[in-house]
Structures are given as C-alpha cells and as structure tokens.
Design goal:
Immunoglobulin-like, 2 domains, 25% helix, signal
Length: 255
C-alpha cells in the first residue's frame, strides 16, 4: 500500500506537468491493413475535403494497385502515381504499377440512373508477393478545414511490437494502458477534460494502426514514460504467496 501511495502522486504530477499546446492534426493518418480490409475494428473511413485532395498510400505495405472501384463517381475523381498493375505498359505486377491513389472533390457531374449518395464506397484490389488483397473504404465528404492529406496503409502490428515495459520491469499491453487511464480519471488524479486524455487515445490509435510505441508517443506528443506509468497502474496486482506454518508432527503414543 505504501508503494501505491507513493506512485499515485508521481503519476498525477507527471500527467499534469505535460504542456497543453494546441496541436494541429497530423498530415498523415495511419490505418492498419487489417482495419482497411474490414478484419478488425469498424472498418476504414476516409474523408475528402473541397479544395484539398486525399491520398491513399500503399507504399508501406509493398503492394501495387491492381483494380479500383468507386461506386458513386459524381463527386470524386481518382488519379494514380503510375499505371494500374496489369494495365497499360505495366503488364505484370512485379515491382511496377501504382501504389498511391489521389482522390479529389468535384462538382457538376451527373450520371443518368446513378443515384447520388451522402457517402460512397471505394474498393481497392492490390497485389504483392504475399498475394492479392481487397481493401474497402467508406469515403465521406468532409467540410471545413482538412484534417489530414494522406491515409497511409500500414503493415499489421504484432502483439509483441506493441508491448511496453513498465517502470517495474513488467510487460504491459494496450488494454493495461486503457485500464490505467480509466483508473487515474476515476481516482480524480487528472480531470476528465485533461489534455492528457486525447493524447493517450491518439497514442493507442497509432499503435493499433501499426506504429511502434515510441513513434506513436512522439507523434501524439506524450512521453513514453507517462504511458508506462499508466500501463503499470492498469496491470493486475501480483498475487503474494500465502505464508503457511510448517506442519506439526503428530505424536503417536506408545501403548
């Protein structure tokens, strides 16, 4: 109990000591292959804003784009950084072809018998040495200032690469960090509107989408030491061995 009493004030001091500057949204947003394929989470959503295109970047996965379908082409145009794999001068998928899609908002295009929708579906088929993959993106039409310029598809992160070593030397995962964050909020060590909270949430999202813990912490603007303290608080307590008295020998009376 003394150790916990000492750790909690240190955690609170570390969290509250973080500066509170207004930070701009990152130009590049990362999502994992699994999320973009609809295998984890709620699938992938991207937005395109007027006057600012959005790039879909597959360079991190080493894949080339083979085919693309846009279900409602009335408000978007597509461009590529090369020929689609298997088309034009790129007859095969070995190292040639496009790996970036550029989406741009347009107005005034109408197609007979094709209904206009409030959002649309973009399907991308890629090819690589690992085989073909199908990605699906719900494309929303953003308003106001753009929140990012590029959505980068990142290789899936392994459970081991997202592990954090806490200050006590124990290994912790993302769920432990979430539990630790809930704990400090419930204990009122930080206020519910603390700027630390969105930074931790940003950190968690980046790690889930393929970033290493250190890279995610740097991008989210938070110290990895603070994340480690939260993870420590979210770990289950280590059960202490129960001390037992040595067995008492039974004395057998001689007849």
């Amino acid at each position: 109990m003394k150790r916990i009493a000492l750790v909690l004030p240190l955690v609170a001091a570390s969290l509250l000591a973080i500066a509170t500057p207004t930070f701009a949204a990152p130009i590049v947003r990362q999502i994992s292959e699994a999320q973009a394929q609809g295998l984890t989470g709620d699938g992938a959503q991207i937005s395109v804003w007027p006057g600012s295109g959005t790039n879909l970047d597959f360079t991190r996965t080493g894949e080339v784009i083979q085919r693309v379908w846009l279900d409602d082409p009335s408000r978007l145009t597509l461009d590529f950084d090369g020929n689609l794999c298997g088309q034009g001068n790129s007859g095969n998928c070995d190292g040639a072809g496009a790996s970036v899609i550029h989406l741009r908002r347009v107005t005034g295009i109408h197609f007979e018998n094709l209904p206009e929708t409030v959002f649309t579906l973009l399907t991308v088929v890629t090819d690589s040495t690992a085989g073909r993959k199908v990605y699906q993106f719900q494309v929303n039409y953003g308003s106001g200032d753009p929140q990012y310029a590029t959505v980068a598809i990142a290789p899936n992160v392994s459970a081991q690469s997202s592990t954090i070593v806490t200050i006590s030397g124990r290994s912790a995962g993302l769920l432990d960090i979430q539990r630790g964050l809930r704990s400090v909020i419930a204990s009122q060590l930080i206020p519910s509107d603390s700027p630390v909270i969105p930074k931790i949430q940003d950190f968690l999202a980046r790690v889930r989408n393929g970033a290493t813990p250190q890279a995610a912490a740097d991008a989210a603007g938070i110290s990895l030491a603070v994340v480690s303290r939260l993870a420590e608080m979210g770990l289950p307590a280590i059960a202490q061995p129960i001390e037992t008295s040595p067995p008492v020998p039974l004395e057998v009376a001689n007849p």
